[in-house]
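Q: For a teaching session next week I want to show students how multiple molecules come together into a single three-dimensional assembly. I've collected the sequence lines for a complex. Could you give me the predicted structure tokens for the whole thing so I can convert them for display?
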Amino acid sequence: MTDEERLREFEARIARGEKIEPGDWMPERYRKQLIRMISQHAHSEIVGMLPEGKWITRAPTLRRKLVLLAKVQDEAGHGQYLYHAAETLGATREEMLDDLLSGRAKYSSVFNYPTLTWADVGVIGWLVDGAAIVNQTMLAKSSYGPYARAMLRICAEETFHKRQGQEMVILLSQGTAKQREMVQDAINRWWWPTLMMFGPRDSDSKNSPELMRWGIKTRSNDELRQDFVNQMIPDLHALDLMVPDPDLRYDQESGNWLIGPIDWEEFWRVVNGDGPCNEERLRARREAHEDGCWVREALAAYAERNAK
Amino acid sequence: MPLSRGERKLLPPWFISMTDTQWPRFEVFLTEDEGKPAAHVGSVHASDPEIALLNARDVFVRRPQCRDLWVAPAGRVLFRTAEELRSQPVPEESNDKTENLYLVFCKRSHREPLVFIGYRAARSEKAALADAVQEISLPEPTLWAVVSDQAVIRSQAQERASFFTPAETKDYKQHVRYPVARLIKEIQGK
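A: Of course. Below is the structure for the complete assembly, covering every listed component.
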């Protein structure tokens, strides 16, 4: 078979809804795109542990501390599922970690913003994990088997993340004036970064056409973003909470909540390393890697001794 | 000798851990409940089999529904997709080696998981796979895995309580414990 014929058969398999498994023939571009996407997704989970992790020692009650610990622990596990999926394509853990710690690798830029109050933890759970669910539910239909299966596993656990955050926001919004103010302020700061999680506009997304053709993703950035907005606005308004968008309006004809312009300059600036917390996040990951060295050495020594 | 990035990418995934400088990789198989077959759920890196089981527990059993956990060094597990088998059928081997016990897993369709279908006595992984492929006809499984019983490290039955029970009691990890719909109804009712 020529590469041309292989490519056609590959695309026919995807059109039939078959899953591509490790070992199947795939175009080099497919492999590269997936490694890039999956490893970025994995890095996002690991770095995503940091903004909320900071509040574990500051949670207002024991129950909230347990819940936050469980959520952050989940994110670590999700990172592991995704690194594994990337490894089935030939990426190595060493290379991926090196890319992250060197600052070369990208991760979801929403995690480059600071968590300034306890209400941020609730808002992240509801908005950020809520947005992730919209994206991941779509990716669960991805053509690459290991990625799709990792998404299913993650989605099952992510619903708890969203609900615990939503519960917190509901309770704060119905609490004291100070609590209502705190949670509204948190929404004001996290709304736009959350919308940016869905990526650039379709017209600016250079990777999307290829990803869609090969079933890696099956819906566009703008479509998913619109779905998320339509879900969130009624639920926020039910609590008398606003989003910081003076141009927000409901379009009767389409049934869509239409948003104002996204600051794409901010998006690209933060994605490319110039956000409020990019440096801090990278430093935290490097320190964690260095500080954990003795654990890795101890385990290696233990294994070596037992192997003798 | 460490492989270059280019060389690494040409190897089948299950071969990589044998020559890499990372910690060894272990494939993980999880049995949810009595009567259910073990299913392949992913892999972990670990310095040894004991740590592999612990890491597998931490990564794959944060929620209940695990009765047994198995790990096997990734290099010892033979994976073959339906496409690979079609282009290169597994040869019947006729060595004079002794027979060993092998675990065979197959994925019957794109929607179903890769699950344990039984043990086969054979002279090698490939021979065990060839036997299993002969037996199972329609529908054509999309993916197979075979591993020697000797390479599998299993969690102990008596460890179930300490290993898996903690996951069962942490109900605050279940999304049903957050009755947001009811809360919203109450607010709207005011």
